[in-house]
Design brief:
Length: 304
């Protein structure tokens, strides 16, 4: 049986020193090797031991660490909180820290330009300033669209006239009243004061319909005027039917309102007549004297 020859103890110690040197040479200036794991670790700071504590290097990936019963060591560069340490309070540019949140003060309407500056309703935050949305203008602290606002048409304070609208920054008459007339808007199809043209007025009893003056409902046109044939004594029932003296036009009929002394009510188109001397109604409503005769006391007699 062959005996196993073990290397001398000095040889084993030399081999271990070579391995330790190789690990140490691969670590950076602010790192040290860990003999148990063979890894390089960063030494962030030192910790002073309190009562019963030992002075030792604090190894952490955070900003600082506190030894048992001791004060915090000097913080390392960047990173999250180490065991027992505090996290970093920085925000990446261009954001800033407002309270516990990182915000973009160039765009955030709740923290515009700086923390706590809130833009009014209807405004945006642009480049750190509260501004009106694109296409709108600030007029006395209010964002308006000068292309359609009749009180600020094409500029602040430029007000359109009554009944006008603002169309693409120009004051113009709207669809309901499309016709300009004497500094205002109207509709030549329905305006009785400007019927089919500016200044063309209809009569008092007329309306403007489709640009034409026509009689109001219930009236009829007689002799270039509109009248009520039911009550007009000059046009009773029909145009130009004139009721006689002493009669009135009632529901389109000439009715005698003065009776006695020969006055008689001849209903229809005649009305009140004196049958004592009326040659067309001599003695009664239906008797007409022949030519050459006259009516005297209700009798047709030859002329002298």
């Amino acid at each position: 049986m062959r005996k196993q020859i073990l290397p001398p103890a000095a040889s084993l110690l030399g081999l271990l020193a070579v391995l330790i040197g190789a690990i140490a040479s691969s670590c950076t200036a602010n790192q040290s090797d860990c003999l148990r794991t063979g890894e390089c670790v960063t030494i962030e700071g030192t910790a002073s031991g309190g009562p019963g504590g030992n002075n030792a290097a604090s190894v952490s990936s955070g900003n600082s660490a506190q030894g048992a019963g001791g004060s915090a060591g000097q913080g390392g560069v960047g990173g999250g909180a180490g065991q027992g340490g505090m996290g970093g309070g920085e925000c990446s540019s261009p954001k800033i820290l407002c309270g516990t949140a990182c915000v973009d003060a160039m765009l955030d309407p709740g923290n515009c330009g700086k923390c706590g500056t809130t833009c009014p309703p209807g405004r945006l935050c642009s480049a750190g300033a509260c501004v009106c949305p694109w296409g709108m203008k600030d007029c006395d602290g209010i964002c308006v669209d000068t292309k359609i606002d009749p009180a600020n048409c094409n500029g602040c304070g430029i007000q359109c006239l009554q009944d006008m609208v603002c169309d693409q920054g120009n004051c113009a008459c709207g669809a309901a009243k499309p016709d300009p007339c004497n500094g205002a808007c109207t509709n030549f199809d329905s305006d009785s004061s400007n019927c089919n043209g500016c200044g063309i007025a209809c009569n008092m009893n007329e309306d403007c319909n489709m640009g034409t003056c026509t009689c109001k409902p219930g009236l009829e046109a007689c002799s270039n005027d509109c009248t009520n044939l039911l009550i007009d004594a000059q046009n009773c029932g029909i145009c130009d039917n004139v009721c006689s003296a002493g009669s009135s036009c009632i529901f389109g009929f000439c009715i005698c309102t003065m009776l006695g002394m020969g006055w008689t009510d001849c209903l229809g188109t005649v009305g009140c007549v004196n049958i004592l001397n009326n040659e067309d109604h001599c003695g009664d409503c239906s008797t007409t004297c022949m030519p050459g005769k006259s009516c005297e006391y209700g009798v047709c007699i030859p002329n002298p």
